[in-house]
Amino acid sequence: MSTKVYMEALSPTMEEGRLVKWLKAEGDTVKSGDVLAEVETDKAVMELVARGEGIMRKHLIPEGATAPVTSLVGIIAAADEDISALIGGAAVPAAAAPVAAVAPVAPVAPVAAAPVAAVAPVAVAPTPPTPATPAAPAADGGRVRTSPLARRIADEQGVNLSGVQGSGPGGRIVKRDIEAAVTSGSANLVAAHAPSATPAPTPRRVAGGPEFRDEPLTQIRKTIARRLAESIGPIPTFYLTAEFDLSRASEMRTAAAELGDAFKVSFNDIILKATATALQQHPEVNAHWLGDKIRYFDTVHLGMAVATDDGLIVPVIFNAEQKRMSEISAEAKALAKRARERKLKPEEFTGSTFSVSNLGMMQIDQFTAIINPPEVGILAIGAIEDKVVVGADGGFEVKKKLRVTMSCDHRVIDGAVGAKFLQTLRRLIENPLLMVF
Amino acid sequence: MAIITYREALNQALREEMARDDRVFLMGEEVAQYNGAYKVSKGLLDQFGEMRVVDTPITELGFAGVGVGAAMVGLRPVIEFMTWNFALLAIDQIVNAAAKMLYMSGGQYNVPMVFRGPNGAALQLSAQHSQAFESWLAHIPGIKVVTPGTPYDAKGLLKAAIRDDNPVIVLEGEMLYNTKGEVPEDDYIIPIGKADLKREGEHCSIITNGKMVLVAMNAADQLAKEGIRVDVVDLRTVRPMDIEAITASVRKTNRAVVLEEGWELAGIGAQVVDYIQRDCFDHLDAPIIRVHQVDVPMPYAKALERSAKPDLAKTIAAVKKVMYVD
Predict the structure, then answer these.
(1) Cβ of A186 under 8 Å from any chain B Cβ?
(2) Which residues of chain A form CATH 2.40.50.100?
């Protein structure tokens, strides 16, 4: 019984991999689960694992060579098995190459596929009752797969197709699925949705429950999205800049550091903590744009941009709103270190719901950051400087000032919504004591 | 109503039309003395004499051409080919003479004639003698093509073909000649270009013609036992095709399987699928599936021949697939 070894998709965005080193030489005995090789993906060096057992009979690509995902790179077989036919074998269908390690991709819009898959540690997106057919993504290139008839019936009955689970091949929604949805009352009726540009705050998530809710796009939201995207490109971005007073944060930091090394935190840690807290109070900016809907998260997976020698990478502090400042500080430090060493696992740099980028340590006063889709916002943190300002008594004072610029995806975040978030963030950063409450 | 064979039904049609109109005559290999290779013309020589039931040499192109000429000057010939595999030799007279004459003579000469004979595979007649030519013939503007699948349709369509003022091709089947069915003794014709809903259901449409009608009916019986009720649309005429009957059925069932005896590429089924996608796009709940002969010359070996032909099992599987069961 032979096993073909394929270049697997070891990260959600990986299209090809460079075989850094074969760890099983030709002739070595291989057990299922053994690490066969190290593979460099677009983000990190990963392990390629055996999916069968036998003898590592043949390496089909040499060390250092690059191969596209799903291509054949080696053969595991019994010692005396004739493998000549296998070597000539063409590349397999993509489906045959398991998407390694990452959780099964939930049937959601493709933009979100990667991040959702990677949030494996937390509750995975709940899917409606599992269909008989294997769950392939219901959406394909932003498109829900339906039979023409199902689409027509859904239109006539006002059923929102994005809420219907398809039971046909590849998740295709067919007539019976619409009928079932209508009969069971689970149909998400388009008409039933009143416009709700600013969603009501949601109660805290119940443990094990879904960690987000999907809001179908209202007409006004769709129009805003279309018009603004036409105006400025794929993501209609606008920018909000605010200058925060860091005096109290600075005092707190100094006071904490005096208590011992365990309490030393950086300004960046304070900003991360404040951002996570503010995001929890503003789920309307803690969201993903999914093309046909907006996904609002009840928990904060905070991405932090880290510069490495190879380029930018954004590791994620998961459930940041639930973590204390010392935890965030430790985690941020560890993630940054591992990022520079290129040791991050894919699940550590995918799944963020909002990101922060800090160039303050490089003496940048203020900048605008590029949104990391499908997120809808990112904070750009500038340098902290002492500035002379007009004090409360009309005299002059020296204050530590920080400029923060938020890039907002206007399809989701309107100006006032972004501004309110920044107001909350200002309140927290200027009064760090509030983070304790 | 009398139950007779398909063979007898054709014989009745010829006899009635020859009695009704003395311009009608039958010509072909062994149609007279031998009563026909498949006995379709049994007794006609005795009744109508050798001026109207004419044995020919083995010269398909020749006697097809004589037929075209006779039709042009006012007779109504019925040309029998021993099989349509042999009619390939006469294809120039069919395609270039019979089909084109009315058009190219500016309406001066019409060609009221019938070309008929068994079409498609029987059993173990191998690659050269097992071919279904519906799509070849239906491709040509200027001729009509009928494919009766039952004795009743055979009689009604052959009579309609003989009375038609244009060249009409009648595709029969060796495996059909012995099949039996109810056939009225009185005069009736079945209009050319009208399909027949042979079975009424609501879950899926099987659209078919000719010999495959029997396969479709068997499939309908089997599927009914599993609670799947299908429409069986017998096209009966493949040119001109009854688009309205096809689309009405698919609009009702939302699913279609197209079953034909011949090969896949440019087959009759391809045209049916095209009509459906054009007219019923928003009614489809599944892609249409075609069932047809495997894309090879018909094998002689029994097992291989069986697996190359479209059959009951393939038809049932196709219906289940478009139903999203299995």
Answers:
(1) no
(2) 3-96
Q: How far apart are CA A402 and CA A366, in angstroms?
A: 9
- Tell me the C-alpha distance between B105 and B127, whole Å: 38
What is the C-alpha separation between A89 and A85, in angstroms, rounded?
7
Neighbour count for residue B261 (Cβ, 10 Å): 28
Q: E strands within A134-198? A: 139-140, 143-144
From the candidates B60, B80, B134, B172, which is the catalytic residue?
Answer: B60
B283 neighbourhood in chain A, CB within 8 Å: 148-149, 152
Instruction: Dump pLDDT digits (tens) for A215-268.
Output: 877 767 777 777 667 666 778 889 999 999 999 999 999 999 999 888 889 999
CATH number at residue B261: 3.40.50.920
Q: Is A294 helix (H, G, I), strand (E, B) or coil?
A: strand
Lowest mean pLDDT among A299-308, B156-165, B204-213: A299-308
Query: In a mutagenesis test of the B interface, which of A151, A175, A176, A177 is the best target, namely the one with the most B β-carbons within 10 Å?
Result: A175
Could you tell me how many CB contacts below 8 A there are between chain A and chain B?
A: 27
DSSP string, A148-163: HHHHHHHHHHTB-GGG
A134 touches chain B (CB under 8 A): no
Q: Are residues B140 and B225 in the same domain?
A: no
Q: Does A153 touch chain B (CB under 8 A)?
A: no
CATH 3.40.1390.20 fits A110-192, yes or no: no
- Ranking A228-242, A404-418, A422-436, B253-267 by mean pLDDT, the lowest is A228-242
Is 70 exceeded by the pLDDT of residue A134?
A: no
The confidence score (pLDDT) of residue A309 equals 79
- Domain around B59: 2-183
Domains in chain B: how many in total?
A: 2
Q: Is the ipTM of this complex over 0.90?
A: no
Taking contacts as CB-CB distances below 8 angstroms, the residues of chain A near B324 are 167-169, 174, 176
Nearest-angstrom CA–CA distance, B42 and B170: 18
- Shortest CA gap B90–chain A (Å): 45
Residue pLDDT, tens place only, B91-141: 999 999 999 999 999 999 999 999 999 999 999 999 999 999 999 999 999
Class of domain A220-436: alpha beta
> Which of B137, B156, B183 lies at the terminal end of a domain, its last residue?
B183
| Residue A88 burial (10 A CB sphere; 0-12, 13-18, 19+) | exposed
B151 pLDDT band, cuts 50/70/90, is very high
Assess whether B129 carries a catalytic annotation: yes
From chain B, the residues in CB contact with A175 under 8 A are: 254, 285
For A3-96, the fitting CATH number among 3.40.50.970, 2.10.109.10, 2.40.50.100, 3.90.230.10 is 2.40.50.100
From chain B, pick out residues whose CB is under 8 angstroms from the CB of A171: none
Name which of A151, A152, A174 is nearest B286 (Cβ-Cβ): A174
Task: Look at residue A205 in the predicted model and tell me its pLDDT.
Answer: 52
Q: What percent of chain B has pLDDT over 90?
A: 98
